[in-house]
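Hi Y.,

Following your request, here is the sequence exactly as I used it, all 583 residues.
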Amino acid sequence: MSEKVKSPDNLPNKPGIYIMKDINDKIIYIGKAKSLIKRVKSYFKEKLDSPKTQVLMNNYDSLEYIITQSEKEALILEANLIKKHRPKYNIRLKDDKRYPYVKITNETYPRILITRNITKNGTYYGPFTDVTSVRKTVKFLKSLFKIRTCKNMDGPCLNSQINLCYAPCDEEISRENYNEIIKKIDLFFQGKYSVILKNLKKEMKESSNNQNYEKAAVLRDQILSIEEIMEKQFVELADEELDQDIIASAKDKDNVIIIVLPVRDGKIIGKDDFLMSGTNNQDLSEVLYAFIQQYYGYNRHIPKQIILEDKVKDEELIIDWLSDLKGTKVSIKVPEKGTKLRLIRMAQKNADIIKNQKNKLENSLIELKKYLKLDNLPRVIEGYDVSNISGKLAVGSKVSFKDGKANKKKYKRFKLETPGPNDYGMMRELLNRRFKGIESDEKPDLILIDGGKGQLNIACSVLKELDLLDIPIIGLAKEFEEIFLPNSSKPIIIPENNKALHLLQQVRDESHRFAVTYHRKLRSKKIQESSLDEIKGVGKIRKINLLKYFENFENIKNANIDEIANVKGMNQKVAKNIYEYFH
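Below is the corresponding structure, written out as tokens. Let me know if you'd prefer a different format.
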């Protein structure tokens, strides 16, 4: 990298990237160039091309540059540095760290995990924008292919006993056979379902011919499961390319929503949506360039063909780069008729729906700001509630909503130690534990307490003790949906059909649900543990074996004597004691 320069006059006539900085030495823009001197000089013209460039240059102080061997190398370096530094004036794939990836670990017997942290270890698929869907998929693949989930491989676990794992820790499967299963999972995430089915059917036939009927039955079930999930989720496209991504967009006032419809084996297999920020005064070709560069730049399946709604900037360079990443030729098309155009319109329609939903959420936040007389939009709202029965097994919950949507990775539950019944004391403990020592960048824009004036007063006293009265706080009482504010004797009533009230109700109800669910879980566990402890002959080891064998307490209650006697370490006498206890 060169020394810092103020003007472009001495830049080389070579490909590379340029890094613009402000007076505080903060990176504000990163760009690539076929010729550094020609590209950077265009920023210093008397009449600039766009308002965005004018704003950029108003904040410009100096630049640094890196020479590369080719423009393609510059494109790769530009993508990596934008991802790392997220400059203010670049078009960016917004909040991409919040999207999860699926990871296949590089252990001797690999596991499949969901993660938001990417390292050099393992193979990654994603990012996935639908967290619920990816969790279901990973759960499906774990049970389908029976791969290990335990971290330490310290002996056969419950999953192996209930036939959900091949138990490599107990040498029940060879490393070679286990890795064949991992290859099937890799094919699954590449969308090569027909290849998986073909291989499974071949294996099933061979197993049957070798009279290995147990293995053939397992393979048959796997085939049926994959065929069922394909039939339910995928949309068939007749006579179309087998491997495509359909990409379209919708422009919002501050951002661009991008929709990707992946087509594999001639079928639409899902839908992903992304938000591109920094798009003001940028034409669509620039936005598509930035999206493709950042979307395909890391651990992403690259299809044979990408279908776009418009031309992309530097198309030949992008195609060359994608082809290198894939190892085979990639094409980009902008359709004018036929099925491909219908798919583009379908993607555009989905993008419009998301844009409208986003605008509605934005409007509800604006309404809420107005009703509560807040200084800022309440983009981050946290809800709090406590749950107990006569003071027993007291728990507290914290839920978090960002831009009107539940942000479940920020949820937290608490076992409360305040003796009860004492709801006020429990709320005091909950808020103290949450806000004591909180950093300024962790503060929510609004705190919502499930309760009326009494609960709100307790919460306000905690914030005062912690010197956090700058955080807006309200109480929402369920009976009349009254909103209580600090230092106000009269509650606020928001019309029942108003979106702002609906958002507050959603936060309040979610905090209540999260607290009650945790309380029920602890109560159920307590009941189960104490019940088994009361049975003659059931000690700690037998109790663990029972729960491992039957998975849950309800199955133990419904089991007959012979089934209970089959549990490791059990005998007929104790099995009879257990059965008679529940019957």
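The chain has five domains: 16-90, 101-236, 243-356, 380-521, 534-582.

Thanks again,
Q.
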